[in-house]
Request: fold
Amino acid sequence: MKTTELQSTDKQIDVSVILCTYNRISMLEEALQSILNQEFDGAVKIILIDDNSSDGTSEIISHKYPEVCLISLKDNVGPYVARNRGLSEAKGKYIAFLDSDDLWQPKYLVTQILALEGQARSFSVSAIIQWDTVKDSKILRLQKPDLQKFTSPIHSLLVRSSFIYSPSSVVLRREVFEEIGLFDESYRIGSDQEFYSRCLIYGYQPIFTEQPLVIVRKHNQGQQTDVNASTIKERRQGRIFYLEKLYPMLENQQQELLPLNRLYAEIYSTAARDFFKNKYYFNWLTSWILDVVKYTSLRYALLNIMRDLLRFMKRYLPTPALTAIRKLFLSNTLST
Reply:
């Protein structure tokens, strides 16, 4: 792989890789090395945005990696503003992202770009290995929407967490951003999900390469995926904000739509189950009784409260008892 000098022209570059970081110098260097180790014959411009780190990131990178286009921000602005700053410096036909705590396997770029060749209005999505470095466990994620639960990929994106777990696994043509715009900077959480929704609305379809060529590390050094009651509320509010932004776009594109009230209900239901899963029981109960009820009915909320409780109690109740309760009370609940 050839890394370009800072003065390289657009025509000399094939791929721009945008890498944002904040106080992760040790993992950052491993991520950078995984870019430099790519088995890709084209020219790559590495754009590193230091989001106002206090661990000497900018000084270390400028000294050890002079070929990297380093952007040092004076304020901590969050990943989406930082990525947009990187996009303003991007050149070449393709754009790829890598989070500073993730790693690429050597064949990542060549595989993702090959999948895009000859495919109009598309972007490529790799499978990932999710590595919990604290527990030292690994899980394979194919990163596809569950179309048994949802009517379409965009339905999934609007009401649940993104089926594309990490931007580190996505490669796009630069023209996508020129047509549909950059990441929305309104929230620090969920803007990548909103961006993928816009891609689908504008007719860009994901190509799933299904090869686990990205390692997404879960660790204890501060991540957006860390969950507490505040982040669940922020994700819920972000989904509502983006639903209200995107729903008129879906109408304008004359795409098949689910009723808006159902989508609101599913967003609040998702938050309720996240609260329950993470043992915020007061928030869980009020989400069902005060929020979901606005868009469905009290009966629907109560049935789903019972379903959540049964999921918790299934380890304690015999199977015949669980089956009887489900048949008696839960046969008419929606899948949310």
About this structure: Residues 229-252 form the longest helix (24 residues).
